[in-house]
Amino acid sequence: MELRLRVNGTAVSNEVEPRMLLVHHIREALGLTGTKVGCDTSSCGACTVLLDGRSVKSCTILAVQADGSDVTTIEGLAPDGELHPLQEAFREHHALQCGYCTPGMIMAAESLLREHPVLDEAAVRRGLEGNLCRCTGYRGIVDAVLEVAGRRGAIAGAPQEAARR
Amino acid sequence: MIPAAFEYRRAASVDDAVALLAEHGGDAKVLAGGHSLVPLLRLRFARPALLVDLGRVDGLAGVRNDGDVVSIGAMTTYCDLESSPIVASRAPLLAAAASEVGDPQVRHRGTIGGSLCHGDPASDVAAALLALDATLVVRGEGGERHIAVADVFVGFLETAIGPEELLTEIRVPATSAPWAFEKFNRRAQDWAIVGCAVLGGPTPRIALVNMATTPVRSAHAESALASGAAPGDAAQVAGDGLDPPSDANASADYRSHLARVLVARALSRACP
């Protein structure tokens, strides 16, 4: 059946089978391979994208369920080649090692920052519960998200101290 | 893992969905947020011939005050329950349970109605609704009927909602009674190994997560309290008469132990 999406700001239309999962559509039909398949069981969060602005696990959504929606993938965060503040902060804080979880982690963090204007460390950790990193642990990731929250003026308490911990 | 092929229809209204279910009966499955059903489709544990997607049906999501009752549309997501001021003030136990489900991505998509129809014994919101003594409103071709949540769960992943019926609304009696929700798991986003929801007041209700083949009330602990037992003593019989599962996460004995501990903690707050 016909599927119409707005992906990273561009309207796209494709024929899909109803059983096509959103993540496979994004990667295979649209060629946006920044979104990863990790656990394949809605646990790890590597496939996280924004659907109408909210983080979702694209391995657990049929593409047809997203018909008419806005999809933002990691490619959509930095369309002009300049790093998004979260990408920059992940680099600064060594928030990745192998990098496989990173696109999902950043999309989950972006959703969290949009939804919750005030964030402290506990809120960041709780907000990223749906994303697993198996390399580095979460210290650098949490610091990176706190730094961006601080820059957006949305952090609870003293941003610079929290970011340095 | 790719689901087996199925036919897919987007219902335009509740009537349309009910008509599709009447036509296809047991060959059809209703698709809400999909966070219980899509994993089952992917594993091919579920192979329906037809999916009836409720995603475009207006009026099935949202929370409203209805006199003494909080009415919750079946397509309301966990995230919306968590952030609803009405749920926070008039059924805070449900808000707490919703905020413990999965992780933010899951709560953005998963729905209260989907969870109830799936009937998983590990459902956090089902336990909360048992403690709150909610009522389910279901629609079929013959009209509407109401089912007490205590009568909904009849077996493992089996409910009293018929294959040709559609859950449309959950009605929760508003309450200001003290409450507590306890969930024990090993990792943040996991299902509960055991959980419990308690609503205090003159006749406290105690519901348990993952202590039977269905979400279940603890009849023994409730009747102990009713006969005047101290909360700590009532908690000691929380798992009595139940047959909790043994699986990779925990043995039945350990689950019974957890039930005693968690019910004691919950009662200390909800029935001080």
Describe this structure in words.
The complex is a heterodimer of chains A (165) and B (272). With 165 residues, chain A is of the alpha+beta class. Chain A is built from seven helices and five strands. Chain A has a five-stranded mixed sheet with strand order 2-1-5-3-4. With 272 residues, chain B is of the alpha+beta class. Chain B has helices spanning 14-24, 37-42, 78-83, 85-90, 92-99, 104-109, 112-118, 124-132, 219-226, 231-235, 252-270, and strands spanning 7-10, 28-31, 50-53, 63-66, 69-73, 135-140, 143-148, 153-155, 158-159, 166-173, 179-184, 194-199, 205-209, 216-217. A five-stranded antiparallel sheet of chain B has the order 4-5-10-6-7. A four-stranded antiparallel sheet of chain B has the order 11-12-13-14, sandwiched between helices. A three-stranded parallel sheet of chain B has the order 1-3-2, covered by helices on one side. In chain B, a hairpin with a 2-residue loop joins strand 4 and strand 5 (69-73). Classes of the chains: A alpha+beta (165), B alpha+beta (272). At the A-B interface, strand 4 and helix 4 of A face strand 1, helix 2 and helix 6 of B.
Please outline the helices and strands:
The complex is a heterodimer of chains A (165) and B (272).
Chain A: E1 2-7, E2 10-15, H1 22-29, E3 48-51, E4 54-57, E5 70-72, H2 74-77, H3 85-92, H4 102-115, H5 121-127, H6 139-151, H7 159-164
Parallel strand pairs in A: 1-5
Antiparallel strand pairs in A: 1-2, 3-4, 3-5
Helix pairs in contact in A: 3-6
Chain B: E1 7-10, H1 14-24, E2 28-31, H2 37-42, E3 50-53, E4 63-66, E5 69-73, H3 78-83, H4 85-90, H5 92-99, H6 104-109, H7 112-118, H8 124-132, E6 135-140, E7 143-148, E8 153-155, E9 158-159, E10 166-173, E11 179-184, E12 194-199, E13 205-209, E14 216-217, H9 219-226, H10 231-235, H11 252-270
